[in-house]
Amino acid sequence: MSTPLLETPTTFAESQLPPPPMPPMGPPMGGSMPLLPSMPPMHHMPLMPAPPLAPPEPVSQFPPDNTPPSHTIYVSNLEEKVPEKELKTDLEAMFTQFGKILRIVAMNSLKRRGQAFIVFDTVESATSALNTMQGFPLYDKPMRIRFSKNMSDLIAKRQGTYVAREKKPLPPIVKPEKSQEVAVAAGPGAKPAAAKPRAPEVAPPHNILLLTGLPEGVTEAQLDWLFRQHHGFREVKMVPGRPDLAFVEYATEHLASEARRALNGHAITETHQLNVAFARK
């Protein structure tokens, strides 16, 4: 008969100790444990391409021009229906603030309508006019200004480089005078009719009004308050460097006519009255 094993008695302190740790488990029988694929470090991971940036908005509505500065500026995109004399007068009134103007060339021929050349006494004056008035509206159209590619005859004569151009003579055109035409139509012995005096030209109705002869010290805010009292008011624009000129725009020609009828001759100061006319189309 075998002798039974006797358990070794434990003390109270030993009974309070934690159980021994479990031995590590080995690989399963018949093969090794598969390894998980390792992840690449974050700094080696490829970055997603950024979305394309939107192109910047153009600063000017006209393309840049690389013509070097000169005494002459070329103004285009003008209203073609304005008479030549009136166009020259308005251009001189707007651009004389930048310096002495030697000449303004504007023609009414079919190919040269809507454009003009302005010759300044100095290149600095022409440069200032181009930078300030580029895109400024005249007759409700923004002006397009660049330096002229050709030198003006006035400047060439001043610098001693002027060369006369050959001009082909045009065949003479003989037109009978109106008095002769009337006399022929009336018969022999008839007296020519007296010429009728021409009435002053008045601009047709327009939704934009032109204010001229404004007194010194009148501000755009004062004109805004005065013309805003009439229906259809949109805005007031004063001409840079010409405090005596301003444009007032209304929604329709009819509303502009009502405002003109009410405010033309209005006493804006003790010594000045408003001169309100329709702007040229």
Task: Describe this protein's structure.
With 281 residues, the chain is an alpha+beta fold. It has seven helices and ten strands. It has helices at 12-15, 84-95, 123-133, 153-159, 178-186, 220-227, 253-263; strands spanning 72-76, 101-105, 116-120, 137-138, 141-142, 144-147, 208-212, 233-239, 242-250, 275-278. Strands 2-3-1-6 form a four-stranded antiparallel beta sheet, covered by helices on one side. It has a four-stranded antiparallel beta sheet with strand order 8-9-7-10. A hairpin with a 2-residue loop joins strand 8 and strand 9.
Write the layout of secondary structure elements.
Elements: H1 12-15, E1 72-76, H2 84-95, E2 101-105, E3 116-120, H3 123-133, E4 137-138, E5 141-142, E6 144-147, H4 153-159, H5 178-186, E7 208-212, H6 220-227, E8 233-239, E9 242-250, H7 253-263, E10 275-278
Antiparallel strand pairs: 1-3, 1-6, 2-3, 4-5, 7-9, 7-10, 8-9
H/E order of the elements?
A: HEHEEHEEEHHEHEEHE
Mean pLDDT: 78
The amount of beta strand, in percent, is 15-25%
- Gap from first CA to last CA: 135 Å
Strand order of the largest sheet: 2-3-1-6
The general outline is extended
- Poorly predicted runs are none
* SS content category: alpha+beta
Oligomeric category: single chain
Task: Give the beta-strand count.
Answer: 10
Helix content: 10-25%
- Evaluate the radius of gyration: 44 Å
With helices defined by DSSP (H or I, 4 residues minimum), what is the helix count?
7
Largest sheet: 4 strands, antiparallel
